[in-house]
C-alpha cells in the first residue's frame, strides 16, 4: 500500500506534552514559564539523516572547525572541487545536507558547495543555540573556506545569511528561501503555538536581550535587508504554514536590489527540492 503523502502546507505541531508543561509553568509563575519557553525556543530537534541526503553526506569532505567567537565547534561539509564556491545554510532543526538537491544542481553547473551543521544541529555538539551563533558560524566559515560567490539560506538560515552580509560577509549574490523576518512576530507565533498569552513573548524577548546583551529586533531580516546592496533573490511559498509569505514579501520590499519568486503548494520544506525553484535559483545566479 502506498504511503500517504505528507501535506506540505500543514504546520508542524508542538507535542501536546510540551504545551501542557508550558501551561502548568504559566500557572505557577511568569518567570518559570518564560524560562521554560526560552529553553524550548533555543533547543532544536536533531533528526536522523534521511536516505535522500546520504549521498551528499558520503561524498562530502567533513571537518570539525572551531568558531572562536562563540566558543563552539561545528561540522562542515565540502561538496565538489570547484573554486567557485556557494555557501548553503540550513534552517532550524535542519542539517548541512538538507539542501542536497540544490547542491547537486550547483555541482552540475561547475560550482562546489560548503555547508555546515549549526551548533546543536546534526553532527555538531550541543543542545541549545540561537541565530547569532548561526551568523558567527557563517563568518568563521568565510575565513576558513572562502571566498564565496553565492550564499543560499533556508528559513532561519536565510535570516542568518542576510544578517551575516550586514556584518561583513562578502558575496556577490544571495538567495533566501522561506526566510523568517521580524523577530517579535517569530516570538509571538512561538508563544501562541505553546498556548501562552502574548505577554509571554515580550518577557521572552527581554530575557534573551538580557542574557545575550543584544537588541533582538536588530536581527530582524528586513532590517538587515535595508543595509544590503548586492542582488538578493527572495523565494517563498504562498502556502507556507511555518513562516507566513508576508515575511518574504516584507524582506523583498526592504531590499535595494531584490527579486521575489513566489510559489504555491510547496510549503516550508518541499520547496527546497522543487525543480522550478532550483531552475529559478540557477537563472538568478547566472545573470550578470
TrEMBL record:
Top-rank taxon: Bacteria
Record SUPFAM superfamilies: alpha/beta-Hydrolases
Keywords tagged on the record: Hydrolase
Residue ranges constituting the AB hydrolase-1 domain according to the UniProt record: 86-179
InterPro entries assigned: AB_hydrolase (IPR050471), AB_hydrolase_1 (IPR000073), AB_hydrolase_fold (IPR029058)
Keyword Amino-acid biosynthesis attributed: no
Gene3D superfamilies recorded: alpha/beta hydrolase
Keyword Endoplasmic reticulum assigned: no
PANTHER family documented for this protein: AB HYDROLASE-1 DOMAIN-CONTAINING PROTEIN, HYDROLASE, ALPHA/BETA FOLD FAMILY PROTEIN
UniProt-recorded name of the protein: Alpha/beta hydrolase
Lineage: Bacteria, Pseudomonadati, Bacteroidota, Flavobacteriia, Flavobacteriales
